[in-house]
């Protein structure tokens, strides 16, 4: 009580696009009595009703945000239910803060401070015994709901953080394996059953690389693939896990900025075909995503720049200057933003499209450059300029942070690539733009305007 449960569960439901149910309110509505009235007839009667409501709600298909009264945890049957059927988030707020929030109110537990503190200590252990995650703020509950852990030092706690107790196959790229592989192996301890390497960069996202990996894997269905590396490693490993034995659990441990703020979140996995990038893949949500911002300390500047383009994209979408934050806070905020978006639109059927801000231009420029000499990050930086101009926004911030330079590519080739983009509907280009009340997707933009902005990006 006083932890902020109602506020945060309401906000989580909105962010995750789920319905919120309050167990105590449902009991009151269905019984026509208030909680104190039911309690007057004895606690066991109340706990019985509470359990019946919980059984009903947790037995339904789909997912919702369920808000329990603080005492629910004292029921062994409810604890069992929470362990088996729910992602349980514990709002761990210190006792003084809780007491300050509720003292003087007419809630029964708010009458006696000594009794409140005693109950608080007693219940802490019970909360700890069922919690899948601990959170303190809205980003914290969103990340927990999405199964994302952002924690400095997470790599060294890998063994405990990878869900379950089955064997683990560790997959990484040779470069990252050389830097962080040993720490990961030590942390996995006895759970580490196999280690595998994927080729570096986009070469990992090929059928040949996955064919080799699938043939090497010895894991059974109780096993988990842990993918340590950048977005190429996580994209390819995720797809390997999605198809191996018709799907086994996987845990990305993203090590590049691109992967920590974008690629490893949201369950999209893929490999490339000669015809184009990400053409074969699956939606396969990780059982957990473990983000350790400390891994970024070994990231080369060029890779950091790649990630900053996506950070700026996220900041523009969120309407917050996220690029000004420290690494730890920036990664956490970007991850939470993307996690919420993906919870609302897990299969990329609508709103998730906003993540393509600047990307239609970027892909056209990359194609025109033949994926040579122009990095994705630099292409996105240019694409963001075009998207901002078309949105009637100022471009100063993006210019200052990312310093994009026009590229020397064939204009007609870039235009042709732009027109071929899968976001064309009835021959008209659809783009993501920033409106006054947030990002909008699927906005039809006249060819002439798009062509003018594209031309400005080309030297
Ligand atoms: N699935 C998605 O939703 C999604 C979203 C965005 C991007 N992506 C994909 O992500 C890929 C790009 O990811 P990327 O930029 O991370 O590429 P990457 O995996 O090739 O990593 C970039 C480079 O950084 C190195 N590196 C990674 N972590 C390091 C560390 N901690 N220290 C030192 N070196 C490190 C890698 O060895 C590699 O050389 C693309 O294939 C893209 O399609 C996927
Ligand atoms: Zn991108």
Give the count of helical stretches: 20
Question: How large, in whole angstroms, is the Cα Rg?
Answer: 25 Å
Average predicted local confidence, pLDDT? 94
Structural class: alpha/beta
Lateral strand order in the biggest sheet: 7-6-8-9
- Identify every distinct bound molecule in the structure, by name, code or SMILES: nicotinamide-adenine-dinucleotide, zinc ion
- CA distance, first residue to last residue: 61 Å
| Number of E strands | 15
Helical residue percent band: 40-55%
> How would a textbook summarize the main sheet?
4 strands, parallel
- Strand content is 15-25%
Overall spatial form: globular
Low-confidence blocks of residues: none
Write a structural description:
The chain has helices at residues 5-16, 23-31, 35-40, 43-59, 76-85, 95-102, 113-130, 138-146, 158-161, 174-188, 207-216, 231-243, 257-263, 301-318, 327-344, 359-368, 376-390, 396-402, 411-420, 447-456, and strands at residues 20-22, 65-67, 89-91, 133-135, 148-150, 168-172, 192-197, 224-229, 250-254, 268-273, 276-283, 289-291, 424-425, 428-435, 438-444. The chain is built from 20 helices and 15 strands. It is 49% helix and 15% strand. It binds nicotinamide-adenine-dinucleotide and zinc ion. The site of nicotinamide-adenine-dinucleotide has 30 residues, from α10, α12, α13, β11 and α14.
What descriptive keywords fit this protein?
459 residues, 3-stranded antiparallel β-sheet, 15 strands, binds nicotinamide-adenine-dinucleotide
């Amino acid at each position: 009580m006083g932890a902020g449960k109602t506020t945060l569960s309401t906000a989580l439901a909105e962010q995750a696009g789920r319905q919120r149910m309050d167990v105590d309110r449902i009991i009151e509505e269905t019984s026509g009595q208030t909680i104190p009235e039911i309690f007057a007839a004895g606690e066991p009667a109340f706990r019985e009703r509470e359990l019946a409501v919980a059984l009903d709600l947790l037995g339904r298909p789909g997912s919702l945000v369920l808000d329990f009264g603080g005492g629910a945890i004292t029921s062994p049957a409810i604890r069992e239910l929470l362990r088996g059927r729910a992602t349980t988030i514990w709002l761990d707020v210190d006792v003084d803060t809780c007491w300050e929030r509720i003292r003087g109110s007419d809630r029964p537990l708010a009458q006696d401070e000594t009794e409140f503190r005693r109950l608080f200590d007693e219940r802490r252990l019970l909360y700890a015994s069922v919690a899948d995650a601990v959170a303190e703020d809205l980003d914290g509950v969103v990340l927990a709901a999405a199964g994302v852990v952002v924690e400095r030092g997470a790599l060294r706690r890998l063994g405990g953080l990878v869900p379950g107790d089955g064997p683990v196959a560790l997959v990484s790229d040779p470069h990252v394996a050389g830097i962080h592989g040993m720490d990961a192996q030590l942390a996995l301890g006895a759970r580490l059953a196999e280690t595998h390497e994927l080729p570096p960069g986009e070469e990992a996202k090929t059928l040949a690389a996955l064919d080799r990996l699938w043939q090497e894997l010895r894991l059974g269905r109780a096993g988990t693939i842990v993918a340590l590396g950048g977005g190429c490693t996580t994209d390819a490993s995720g797809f390997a896990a999605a198809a191996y034995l018709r799907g086994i659990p996987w845990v990305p441990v993203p090590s590049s900025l691109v992967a920590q703020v974008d690629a490893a979140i949201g369950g999209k996995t893929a490999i490339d075909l000669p015809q184009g990038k990400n053409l074969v893949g699956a939606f396969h949500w990780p059982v957990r995503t473990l983000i350790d911002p400390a891994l970024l300390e070994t990231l080369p500047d060029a890779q950091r720049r790649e990630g900053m383009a996506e950070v700026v994209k996220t900041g523009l979408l969120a309407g917050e200057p996220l690029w000004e934050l420290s690494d730890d806070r920036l990664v956490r905020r970007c991850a939470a933003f993307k996690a919420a978006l993906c919870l609302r639109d897990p299969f990329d059927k609508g709103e998730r499209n906003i993540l393509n801000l600047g990307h239609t231009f970027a892909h056209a420029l990359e194609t025109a450059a033949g994926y040579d000499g122009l990095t994705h990050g630099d292409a996105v930086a240019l694409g963001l300029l075009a998207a901002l101009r078309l949105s009637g926004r100022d471009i100063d911030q993006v210019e200052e942070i990312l310093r994009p330079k026009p590229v020397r590519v064939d204009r007609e080739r870039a235009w042709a690539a732009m027109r071929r983009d899968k976001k064309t509907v009835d021959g008209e280009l659809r783009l993501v733009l920033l409106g006054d009340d947030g990002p909008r997707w699927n906005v039809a933009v006249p060819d002439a305007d798009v062509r003018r902005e594209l031309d400005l990006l080309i030297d």
